[in-house]
Amino acid sequence: MANASNADKGIGDVKVEFRGFKKRFGSKLVHKDVSFKVRKGECLGLLGGSGAGKSVILRSMIGLEKPDEGQVLIDGVDIVPMKEQELIDVRKKVAYVFQNGALFDSMSVYENLAYPLRAHTKLTEDEIRRRIKEQLEEFGLEGNENVMPANLSGGMQKRVGLARSIILQPSVVLYDEPTAGLDPYNTIRIQEMILRLKTKGVTSVFVTHDMPSVFAVCDRIALLLEGRIQSIGTRAELETSTDSHLNRFVRGEEI
C-alpha cells in the first residue's frame, strides 16, 4: 500500500484533486492536511472511522463545505473561492448520492427525476419524458413513475436517488454510504449501477464501511486517519499491506 505522500506522483488525467485541505469545526481540527487525486474514470474508495470527516470531504467537492486552508480542484479548477452562483455549474457535473436517497417526499418518482432536468436544462417535456423512461429502465425501475417515495422499499429509494443524481449526466459521482442498510440483492444492484457508470467514463468517490462493495467497485482505496490520507493504493496493494491501521479497519476493528 503506497504512502499517501507519493502515491499520486505522475498521476495522469486528474479529475478531482485535494491539496493541503484543512478544516476545523470550532475547536476540533478534523482535517489537518488532506491531499489526494482521483483519475478520470476511476472509482476511489474513501475509508475511515466514524467522525473521520469522510462526508465533509464529499460535501467539499460540491462547495457545501469550505476548507480553512487548501484547494479542491475539479478538472484543474479550484472551486473553493467560487460563489454560490458559480457552484451551480459545478453541481451539474458533480453529482452527490446521499445515504438516504434524499428524495422529495411530496413528489412522485417521475417528478423527482424531472425536477433537475426542468431546473437545469432546456429540454422539452417530451425530451424529459424520454430521458426519465431510459433512466428508469436502466435502473430496473420502470413502472414506478407514479409511485410516491414513501411507498418504495429502502433499496428502491436508493436506486431512485441514484437515478435522479445522474439524470444530468455528470462526469463525477460522489457516493455517501450508498449500500448502508441494504439487503444483499439491493447491494449488488447498487454495485452494478456504479460499475455501469464507470464503463461510461464517470469518475467516482465512494465513501463506505462496506468492504465487499469497496472490493467490487473501487480501483483504489484511501484511508483517512487523524486528519490525513494515511495510505492509498489498489486492492492488491491493500491485501498485502503491512499498514496496521488499514489492516485493523479491514478486519472491522477500531483504528
Keywords:
four-stranded antiparallel beta sheet; 26% strand; 255 residues; seven-stranded mixed beta sheet; 35% helix; alpha/beta; Rossmann fold; 9 helices
Question: Would you kindly provide a written description of the structure presented here, covering whatever features stand out?
Answer:
There is one protein chain. The protein contains nine helices and eleven strands. It is α/β, with parallel strands linked by helices. The protein has one domain: Rossmann fold. A hairpin with a 2-residue loop joins β5 and β6 (77-78). The radius of gyration is 18 Å and the shape is globular. The model has no long low-confidence stretch (mean pLDDT 89).
Topology:
Layout (H helix, E strand, L loop, with lengths): L1 E2 L10 E12 L2 E12 L3 E5 L6 H7 L8 E6 L2 E2 L5 H10 E4 L11 H12 L4 H14 L15 H12 L6 E5 L7 H16 L3 E5 L3 H7 L2 E6 L2 E7 H5 L4 H7 L5
Parallel strand pairs: 4-9, 4-10, 7-8, 8-9
Antiparallel strand pairs: 1-11, 2-3, 2-5, 5-6, 10-11
Helix pairs in contact: 3-4, 3-5, 5-6
Quickly describe the structure.
With 255 residues, the chain is an alpha/beta fold. 35% of the residues lie in helices and 26% in strands.
